[in-house]
From TrEMBL:
CDD domains: KH-II_NusA_rpt1, KH-II_NusA_rpt2. This is Transcription termination/antitermination protein NusA. Residues 284-347 form the NusA-like second KH domain. It comes from Flavobacterium stagni. Keywords: Cytoplasm, RNA-binding, Transcription, Transcription antitermination, Transcription regulation, Transcription termination.
């Protein structure tokens, strides 16, 4: 097999892998040099001439003529008598260039060349793939479900690239079938061996931010700025927005008439409840807005400790804390302040009793469960329905009924 025939047999890789001819030739030269190193110990005295237009190449071996019997390195030196068989007028000290045919390397070497070429092209593809996805980290991407496994969903894009969506990067309510289109952000690209692993996320705050950019033109155009996003994936999120244009209502523009603009985002996130609030540099006002839908009476800030005491009327406490403490947790993350909710009112005037007063009869962990949802007095619990309390806490209905019995006895006495 002549050199040109061998090159033509390799050309299928260029078509299959969409590699430009110049890149292919550079890979070919690297592969052939490795083969020469294996056969001759070094490729330093070889010239490889590649013609990308014709798809042809030549390999020339350069050696110095030495006297017969004085060859120390057969790869770089040639005896005078052997050199004169190539050209009869060679003299000692002159350079001899001799063409090497690939067939001279042997059949096994040619098969190894082909395998090495495949490996190098895959390596080239992986490097390009790594760079391609590294450049779009943090951007929204859509791919199709190829395989669903217990701990990961394997996705494939239009170019056949594999993307992984780990269980912990999925919204809890997510349910996928083969063939479904899945939207998320490219969160990370890692090299596993020589192969890049592309990781998608649907739980990242960045995903919600990018959905705002995608769905709300004013955000995309930069007229509305997203200052901060915090979320409990699939449950609740808070987004602080601002605008440098006083004519624009950033919250209204993001939510739309009757929630028309934000509805698509909510649906994409598995009906995640999204609060959009106006950003402000006033920390007290920002905390008050972040605790929405609760109405805050007053706030006492401690800038040094980054903490705040938030005073609310009794009926506002449970709203501020939210189901399972979600609202106050997100408000704290959004504002950067540790928030302590304090119920307004005088216990004696209300004829109410702090729940901690019943610590002899009610276990401390039960009292803590009620406190998590903003219920820290006897009457605040007695006003609630048993089923609702069971839903909002980790307590059994029987436990709640027993607590209510103890509390009722206090007022009956």
């Amino acid at each position: 097999m002549e050199n040109i025939a061998l090159i033509e047999s390799f050309s299928e890789f260029k078509d299959d892998k969409l590699i430009d001819r110049v890149t292919l030739m550079a890979i070919l030269e690297d592969v052939f040099r490795n083969a020469l190193k294996k056969k001759y110990g070094s490729d330093d005295n070889f010239d490889i001439i590649i013609n990308p237009d014709k798809g042809d190449m030549e390999i020339w071996r350069n050696r110095v003529v030495v006297a017969d019997g004085e060859v120390e390195d057969p790869n770089s030196q040639i005896e005078l008598s052997e050199a004169r068989r190539i050209e009869p007028d060679f003299e000692v000290g002159e350079d001899v260039s001799e063409e090497v045919k690939l067939i001279d390397l042997g059949r096994r070497a040619i098969l190894a060349l082909r395998q090495n070429l495949i490996s190098k092209i895959h390596e080239h593809d992986n490097t390009n793939l790594y760079k391609q996805f590294k450049d779009i980290i943090g951007e929204i991407y859509t791919a199709e479900v190829h395989h669903v496994r217990p701990k990961v969903v394997i996705l494939v894009d239009d170019d056949g690239n594999e993307i992984v969506l780990p269980k912990e990067k999925q919204i809890p309510s997510d349910f996928f079938r083969k063939g479904d289109n899945v939207k998320g952000i490219i969160e990370n690209v890692e090299l596993k061996g020589n192969k890049p692993q592309i990781v998608m996320s649907r739980t990242s705050e960045k995903f919600l931010e990018k959905l705002f950019e995608q769905e709300i033109p004013e955000v995309f155009d930069g007229l509305i700025i997203i200052k901060k996003v915090v979320r409990i994936p699939g449950e609740k999120a808070k987004v602080a927005v601002d605008s440098y244009d006083d004519r624009i209502d950033p919250v209204g523009a993001c939510v739309g008439m009757k929630g028309s603009r934000i509805h698509g985002i909510v649906r994409e996130l598995g009906n995640e409840n999204i609060d959009v609030i106006n950003f402000t540099t006033n920390p007290s006002l920002l905390i008050s807005r972040a605790l929405s839908p609760a109405k805050v009476s007053s706030i006492k800030l401690n800038e040094e400790t980054k903490s705040a005491e938030v005073f609310l009327k009794l009926e506002e406490v449970s709203k501020a804390i939210g189901r399972g403490g979600q609202n106050i947790k997100l408000a704290s993350q959004l504002t950067g302040f540790e928030l302590d909710v304090i119920r307004e009112g005088n216990v004696a005037e209300d004829d109410d009793v702090e729940l901690t007063e019943f610590s002899d009869e009610i276990d401390g962990w039960i009292i803590d469960e009620f406190a998590k949802i903003g219920l820290d007095t006897a009457k605040s619990i007695l006003k609630q329905e048993v089923a609702d309390l069971a839903r909002r806490t980790d307590l059994e209905e029987e436990t709640i009924i027993e607590v209510m019995r103890i509390l009722k006895e206090e007022f009956e006495d």
